[in-house]
Fold this sequence. Notes:
The protein is of the alpha/beta class. It is 55% helix and 14% strand. It is built from twelve helices and eight strands. The protein has helices at 11-22, 37-47, 55-60, 74-81, 99-106, 137-148, 161-170, 172-189, 194-214, 219-225, 232-242, 245-266, and strands spanning 4-7, 30-33, 50-52, 64-67, 89-92, 110-115, 125-131, 151-155. The chain has an eight-stranded mixed beta sheet, with helices on both faces. Strand 2, helix 2 and strand 3 (50-52) form a beta-alpha-beta unit. It is elongated. The two termini are 36 Å apart.
Amino acid sequence: METIAFIGGGNMASAILGGLIAQGMAPAQIIVIDPGADQRAHLQATYGLRTADDVTAGCAEADTVVLAVKPQVIAEVAERVAGALKGKLLVSIAAGVPIARLEALFGPMAIVRTMPNTPALLGLGATGMFANDCVDAAQRARAKTIVEAFGLCVDLPREDLLDAVTAVSGSGPAYFYLLIEEMIRAGASLGLTREDATMLTLQTALGAASMAAQADVPPEDLRRRVTSPNGTTHAAITSMQNDGFADMVSRAMTACRDRAVELGRAE
């Protein structure tokens, strides 16, 4: 029976834990290693899993180890865990830490690097993953099962594409939050109460995303279907396009990708 150890028991780890258990994984197969006694007690009470405060002992019996700590403490973790990860699969959800850096810290081993996003906390994550050459087919499938416990997973052929994933889905939720902010503000300026503008905007965003996800046609077709020539939607879309909406989005996402590359090189 496979055992998974989580180094770190914060919000993202909790999202994965909840997803794995909901999919049928036995809590006895999971060990969470976290220095906080209160957090360990909370996770144990919530999920019925095992916890530990010693990273070496906690990882000893695991087949797979999920690295779920902040990037700035990974070096410290690597020192403490020493050679305890030999022969195991390491799945990293630490943002911006390249595989070369992980290999330098933990030694040559099977490593899968992932780029999740915050909707993973609701089981609606969109995550890219890349596996190094040490990862075999069974380990790749195991890693994908872990990532899919909190949403959609895209298996990438090159590690550098994780920077593009950062631009699309990693940072993507903030783009939509900004659009939501501005739609609420504009709705209020047009005479709606802020409360009504908020409710209408949020429900519209939810409905549009749901329709796009379930449709059998691309988003541009959905847009055309609701954009009657010379109608109200046409007026709004034409205004956005005339203001360079497409170029603005492209520039923003390229800036995001470029910054992700810079941060990765700084590691």
